[in-house]
Amino acid sequence: MSDHRYDSAFYVQVLDRYVQTGECAETDSEPLYAYLLSVMNDPLMKIQVLNDEICARIFYDTMIQFVQLNLEKEKYHLQKSRSDQQAMKLVLEWSVTKRKDGWQALMQQIADDYQAYGFDHRFYRSQFGNEGKVADDDLWEKMVDDWEEAFRRKQQSSKEQEIEQRREALERRLRSNLKEIPEYLRQNNIEKDEFLQAWGLMSGLWNTVDLDAYEK
After folding, report:
1. 78 near 2, Cβ under 8 Å?
2. In a 3-state reduction of DSSP, which class is residue 169?
3. What's the pTM value of the predicted model, to 2 decimals?
4. Would you give the DSSP letter of residue 30?
5. Which DSSP string corresponds to 34-99?
6. Which of 21, 31, 113, 174 has the smallest set of CB atoms within 10 Å of its CB?
């Protein structure tokens, strides 16, 4: 169910191209990529990143950390939902007898988890309650298709929530670092190469105490 176009290597390529050229897409349907694009398409952000190597490095490292964190969360949610994905495959293989015995419990199970994401369990309850309808293969397959679509919507919503939980803190830290770090380096006559070496040891968590210790 996951889209392998949006793996870690994909985001590395996107960020590499952006810090080198400023080029990026306008928007996308994938929540994490869409959010990243919204930041990259900010005109002020683009000016800073393209005109200052230090700002480019700060931006790149900060955003790649954010991406990796969200990809890990996405992987976790997908692993948790593996049982639902497996159930969809198994339900397609149910015999007519098993459908007759199990459709009501199945509708309740899907409704509990996916009604909020557009699964119309009332429609299928009314259909399968009619004589012979539960044996209709096309209707049964459509039900599973709708279940899969609701599953995708739930995954999408989970990704959006994960991003929203961290977005404000990320943007605050990024704006602060892009403003304060270059100014601090100028005031203290710290060379770019010295900073980049120290920054690499800070794991993206800027503080002058560590930098001063490194300088000494």
Report:
1. yes
2. helix
3. 0.78
4. S
5. HHHHHHHT-HHHHHHHHH-HHHHHHHHHHHHHHHHHHHHHHHHHHHHTHHHHHHHHHHHT--HHHH
6. 21
Q: How confident is the model at residue 1 (pLDDT cuts 50, 70, 90)?
A: very low
Query: d(Cα 147, Cα 195) in Å, to the nearest integer?
Result: 52
Distance in angstroms between the alpha carbons of the first and the last residue of the chain: 51
203 conformational bin, left if phi > 0, alpha if psi -120 to 50, beta if neither: left
Token pair listed for 95: 């015999």
Q: Are 63 and 36 in contact (CB under 8 A)?
A: yes
The single residue listed with the structure tokens 């080029």 is 23
Q: Which residue has the tokens 């509708």?
A: 107
∠7-158-26 over CA atoms, to 5°? 55
pLDDT of residue 78: 82
Tokens 């006559």, located at residue: 189
**124 within 8 A of 107, measured Cβ to Cβ:** yes
Query: Residue 55 CB: number of other CB atoms within 10 A?
Result: 21
Rounded CA-CA distance 53/41 in Å is 18
Show the tokens assigned to 29.
């349907």
Yes or no: say if 109 and 143 are a contact pair by the CB < 8 Å rule: no
Instruction: Pull the structure tokens for residue 127.
Output: 């259909």
Sign of CA dihedral 82, 83, 87, 89: positive
pLDDT tops 70 at residue 208: no
Average pLDDT for 121-150: 94
The token pair at 2 is: 């996951």
